[in-house]
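Predicting holo structure, zinc ion bound.
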Amino acid sequence: MHTPRFWLRCSRCDGETEFRQSARCACGGSLLVEYDLDHVARALTPEVLASRPGSMWRFREMLPVERDESIVSLGEGSTPLIPLPALQRALGVRAAHVKREEQNPTGSFKARGFSVAVSLLVEHGVGKAAVGSNGNAASALAAYAARAGISAHVFLPEDCPGLIVDECRGYGAEVCLVRGLIQDAGRLIEEGREAEGWFNVGTLREPGRVEGKKTMGLELAEQLGWRLPDVIVYPTGGGSGIIGMWKAFREMKALGWVGGEAPRFVCVQEEGGTPLASAIAGGGGAASAHASPTGLRVPSPPDGELVTRIVRESGGTAVAVSREEIQAAQKGFGALGLSSSPEGAATLAGLRRLREDGWIGPRDEVVLFNTACAMKYLPWTAPAPATVVASYAEYRDLAAAPSGDPALPASAGTHAGMHPAPNR
Ligand SMILES: Cc1ncc(COP(=O)(O)O)c(C=O)c1O
Ligand SMILES: [Zn+2]
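Done. Tokens:
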């Protein structure tokens, strides 16, 4: 019998199932991709990798796409890992590096996840995708869907940075603002999914995005000469990047590419929105939503249990940093010549805090993840009116209105330059 190259296993009940485009198990756990690692080992070695050109698809055999023709790529991955000697000296750590994820297409690391997720949409013949997002996932879906000829429907919190809203439109997505937060956007999609024919590519709803983020961990080991750092400081929203990198370290260990201890994960969130940081620290009930409108603000992470377990088992910790600390860290990165998003800067703020209190010691080698660039969050004065809805019912009624386009607010109809890009 033909053995599949990859399948799914539940991170909670351990149940296995054949590969499908769902990351939810009946038990409530997350389904993650498992690979036939013997097959991977025959096709891929560090030597083979060294001969392949820069792209996250260099790790092709460790990504769950069957056919090369399905791959939707815009040049994602192979981002630089650069040393930060001045910071190293200032903080007194053995080594500090930053992984420059802001250099990905669409200016954020979300490109990795959507390159895989949209490739899977192509492979499985899906033509209409929707995402609820704080912004960067939405623009990544919009770009990759445009590349693939798939229609993208993005639902963003009302206070999403204006530049990102217009970025999504620039890629031709249907854009709708939702009264509330990211989980309200996700709920609207679930309510309308069947009627609209949307495939929901939200966090941990399908297996591709975690696999794409896994490539950050694979690249990190390769860039350090097939070793792993002591500490990874990661700006955490839903936590799928932590899940992805944890998978990367396990798979590389099983392949014999790296040995030794896996890194301790540090989950950084912004004060006022720290459900994961609080859970990791052993507290509960921190689902408040007063943090700034960035990718860190995810009051109801889809699988907090798994992220908490991974961080704890790694010997890691969590830290909540203030808006002021993040702003100071953006200046700190700037002084090193680096443009950082609030999320990326939060990792520097977290490092400073943990070095001060001694959790990170002088012998530690630390890697920060700068997940997006500063420009995405700059004040945006261009007129960007958009429909704001509170529910799927409201969305549906607007869609049925004479303009027939919920992305086209009636009040914006006459303003030149204010129209969203037409839907496909
Ligand atoms: C720039 C940026 N950094 C970090 C995150 C959080 O990522 P994760 O969902 O992997 O925790 C997001 C999510 O929106 C983001 O946009
Ligand atoms: Zn299960």
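Residues 67 and 123 are 7 Å apart (CA to CA).
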